[in-house]
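@channel sequence for tomorrow's demo:
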Amino acid sequence: MREIKNLTVCVKKGGAADAAESFAKRTGTVISDEPGEELTLLFDREGVSLTGFGLSYRGDFTEMLRRLTGGRLQHEMLVHISKTSVPSPRAVDATAGMGEDSILFAAAGYDVTMFEQDPVIACLLKDAIRRAKKDNTLAPIVSRMHLVEGNSIELMPALPFKPDLVYLDPMFPERQKSGLIGKKLQLIQKLEMPCFEEEALLEAALKTSPGKIVIKRPLKGPYLAGRKPGYTIEGKAIRYDCIVP
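structure tokens (generated this afternoon):
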């Protein structure tokens, strides 16, 4: 696992010291009683958050409740394109991020295996899932979300099952003026994000022999690895390309 040079791990009263020590050991980061000069992964009584540059971000799936309840889930483009008649379907989110798309799949009935290779994001996601399990509405949904920390290009071909759906969202937003994006993206953009090799990512997805591959792209963006999809659903700013092997 790569070292993270611009990150400090800080443990405050009530924070999960064991988890902080494990993270620091795996990533070669320093544990401190106080936040660092740049980014800090903060463990406190509330959970885990990423702080720095006057900002703070903590994953919170309760913010997704308005999209998951009241009949709104079925209006989600991603849910529409992922509809299946397969009983107990299984999905793979190869580029999980903070799990906002994975929770849509899980709410729609999929059992979701999530891959996230950045250790900071994986740590934040794991904590967000832990706290979501305390919410009566979210608990049965996030129980179907399973995080694997690692590179999906390397790990997907070795999956012990054939997924009904593989989801790819390899695009990271272009750097924008801070006033135009939220705290999460402002802080995540400060991380030295690993780059996905588009052809390798798509090839790894195909090796799982999936029922279909769904790819999130900018509305006017090129096809992933130049592969023309079987069909596409378009929104106002993004589209979903679907490949049926």
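heads up for whoever presents: The chain has nine helices and twelve strands.
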